[in-house]
Every structure is written in structure tokens, then in C-alpha cells.
Specification:
Radius of gyration: 13 Å
Strand order of the largest sheet: 1-4
Largest sheet: 2 strands, antiparallel
Structural class: little secondary structure
Number of helices: 1
Length: 83
């Protein structure tokens, strides 16, 4: 990680709106989360154990490139990802 640039991706929650930075056109997100909402999810939102965290434990996952950060999300078909 020599370049000092890291990427954080999140699956966009369909319930999220402009108060989180998500702007939609015809119900489809055309922007990602804003700076405030791009970080670590609140502990209350972490319902399952992840690769390096327990349920309810906050961990910031980062990647060296956009492709890896998106693949880490294990998004389902029709999910949208904010990077």
C-alpha cells in the first residue's frame, strides 16, 4: 500500500436517501454516500460476524483498489455499491 490511497465500499441501503448523500433518479442511486456516512457502520447495524469482526463489533475494511473493495462486499444482483 505504497500510494497511500485506500478504498472503502458499502452496499447502498435502498432505504437511504439524500440525508446520507444518496441521490436517486427514478429510484436508482446516481451518487454514493457522503463523507459522514462512508465510514464504519454503527455497531447496532452490524448484525452478523464478519471475516475479522464479531456481531456488533466495528471494523473498517479498506482495500488498495476499487475492484477489490467492491468484491469484498459480496453484493447480490441488483445491489448498488458506494465507493
Amino acid at each position: 500500500m505504497d500510494n497511500g490511497i485506500y478504498y472503502r465500499a458499502r452496499i447502498i441501503d435502498p432505504a437511504d436517501g439524500e440525508n446520507t448523500g444518496i441521490i436517486k433518479e427514478n429510484g436508482i442511486p446516481i451518487s454514493g454516500y457522503d463523507d459522514l456516512h462512508s465510514g464504519v457502520a454503527p455497531a447496532s447495524a452490524i448484525k452478523i460476524t464478519g471475516r475479522v469482526n464479531h456481531a456488533g463489533e466495528q471494523v473498517l475494511y479498506l482495500a488498495e483498489d476499487i475492484k477489490t473493495s467492491c468484491k469484498e462486499q459480496k453484493a447480490a444482483e441488483n445491489d448498488y455499491i458506494s465507493v
